[in-house]
Write a structure and sequence with these properties.
Layout (H helix, E strand, L loop, with lengths): L1 E5 L4 E6 L6 H23 L4 E2 L10 H9 L3 E2 L11 H16 L4 H17 L3 H10 L1 H10 L8
Parallel strand pairs: 3-4
Antiparallel strand pairs: 1-2
Pfam family, one: DDE_3
Organism: Hypsibius exemplaris
Protein name: Tc1-like transposase DDE domain-containing protein
């Protein structure tokens, strides 16, 4: 499994997750990348980040809510099973298409193709335009989910 984080401007983090991820391992991963990136973002853009994640149990546990409280980090809450609000789901979808076209033959090749697809989608020639367009669609995404009663939307 892989975990990634993006901002409107760049790749934040990308990691391979070995085995099962629990609240402890997820918190450690966030501690390793988020505080430093958040500080950099505030310095460069003059505003704070809003961290968004899916509703996996290790992401919304009391332990993780305590982490976000300690860090005084705002998180966007959304309905369960609602990938519509998370721009990174669009990146994962594009990556799946990229990887399927290459037809990896084994796990090592699959992992290599995943890394290459991630870099292409987050640092490649058209990545800045893609990331900004995904983040610029957030208001419309939120409005669509609200209007649709928390159910799936076109996003």
């Amino acid at each position: 499994m892989f975990w990634g984080a993006i901002s409107p401007y760049e790749l934040v983090a990308f990691k391979r997750v070995n085995g099962y991820q629990n609240s402890n391992s997820y918190e450690k991963m966030l501690e390793d990348c988020l505080p430093a990136y958040r500080q950099k973002f505030i310095e460069e853009h003059g505003r704070d980040i809003c961290f968004q994640q899916d509703n996996a149990s290790c992401h919304v546990s009391g332990q993780l809510m305590d982490f976000f409280d300690r860090e005084q980090m705002y998180t966007l809450r959304h309905p369960p099973k609602s990938p519509d609000l998370n721009p990174i789901e669009n990146i994962w979808g594009l990556m799946k298409q990229d990887i399927a076209r290459r037809a990896p033959m084994n796990e090592a090749e699959l992992c290599q193709f995943v890394k290459e697809a991630w870099l292409e989608r987050t640092t490649g020639p058209k990545s800045a335009e893609l990331l900004m367009s995904l983040f610029n669609s957030m208001s419309a995404r939120i409005e669509a989910v609200i209007l649709n009663g928390g159910n799936r939307t076109k996003y």
